[in-house]
Design a protein that fits this description.
By secondary structure, the chain is mostly helical. The chain has 2 domains: about 140 residues, Clp, N-terminal domain (Double Clp-N motif, Orthogonal Bundle); about 140 residues, no CATH class. About 70% of the residues lie in helices and about 0% in strands. Helix 2 packs antiparallel against helix 5 and helix 4 crosses helix 11. The longest helix is centred in the last third of the chain and has 24 residues.
Length: about 290
């Protein structure tokens, strides 16, 4: 678990620098939001493929946060500022995990079900019981997002999923069908918005945030059927995005029919598509016309 392991090493440094007696979930949270600490210092002799996989795992977390409108760097700084600081002890060789930290890792291992624990899996484990500090930081960040993007809201069922209240593996078929129905109703209700307007872009972005939330969860589980269903609800903003979405859905379907898993290059294409779907183009049309 290269990315998850590196996040824990960063968490230990955070705890040591903050003078904390133990590594707490908020230190792990900061570690998961600090990819540049490792990726930005990659040596020429480093295993390139290994670091690429680390980057991909961290990118999944950044994408997941982006779905809810969060910025990883902002959250990291807010969490660090909110955590009580003691006297820094940089000479300490090891900082042990707190009980909450141990339980967090055990949740990630249990959820992995014998597979490698990913950074996204560790992130989900933190979010199941985030603790007061992380909860307050996210609440404060959500207030800022709501003030800036009043129409970019996740639907209630998807919001609970992102918040970690009910991890996707625990959702049964009826839960998932209800999620899709809710997004479908929202999409049909707002079809009348004129394409190209800021109102249409806001509704498109709101729908795609919900779609991407589901897609990321299904991608983590490698659930091809769910992934296809999620992407079919997306609202592309260009012919290029529409074609890309159709090609990816077709590729996933062919692999599913052949009983094959999703290759890394297809996963990368899916993540790139989700980034494009989440692009906020409101106001840009008017700027181009000036």
């Amino acid at each position: 678990m290269p990315a998850a392991f590196l996040a824990l090493k960063i968490a230990e440094v955070e705890a040591r620098n903050a003078g904390s007696e133990y590594i707490e979930p908020e230190h792990i949270f900061i570690g998961l939001l600090s990819p540049e600490k490792v990726l930005g210092k990659k040596s020429p002799s480093a295993n390139d493929r290994k670091m690429e996989r680390v980057a991909e795992e961290w990118e999944a977390i950044v994408t997941l946060l982006g779905i809810a409108g969060h910025n990883a760097t902002v959250l990291r700084r807010l969490t660090r500022a909110a955590h009580p600081r003691g006297k820094s002890d940089r000479d300490r060789r090891r900082v042990p995990l707190s009980q909450a930290g141990i339980e967090c890792i055990l949740r990630a291992i249990h959820a992995a079900g014998g597979r490698t624990v990913t950074a996204a899996g560790l992130f989900s484990a933190v979010m199941v019981q985030p603790g007061t500090i992380i909860h307050d930081v996210l609440a404060e960040a959500r207030k800022c997002i709501a003030a800036d993007r009043r129409t970019d809201v996740l639907l209630p069922s998807v919001t609970s999923l992102i918040a970690g209240g009910r991890p996707m593996p625990s959702l049964n078929s009826d839960d998932i069908r209800n999620l899709f129905d809710e997004i479908g109703r929202y999409r049909n209700t707002h079809k009348q918005w004129m394409q190209g307007s800021d109102e249409y872009s806001a509704i498109r972005l709101a729908i795609n945030r919900n779609v991407a939330a589901l897609a990321v969860s299904f991608l983590e589980k490698e659930d091809s059927e769910g992934l296809i269903s999620a992407l079919m609800l997306a609202v592309p903003s260009s012919t290029e995005e529409e074609l890309s979405c159709a090609e990816i859905i077709t590729a996933i379907g062919e692999l599913r029919n052949e009983g094959k898993t999703l290759p890394d290059d297809l996963k990368s294409r899916i993540n790139e598509l989700l980034k494009k779907l989440l692009k906020d183009d409101r106001g840009r049309k008017k700027e181009r016309e000036k």
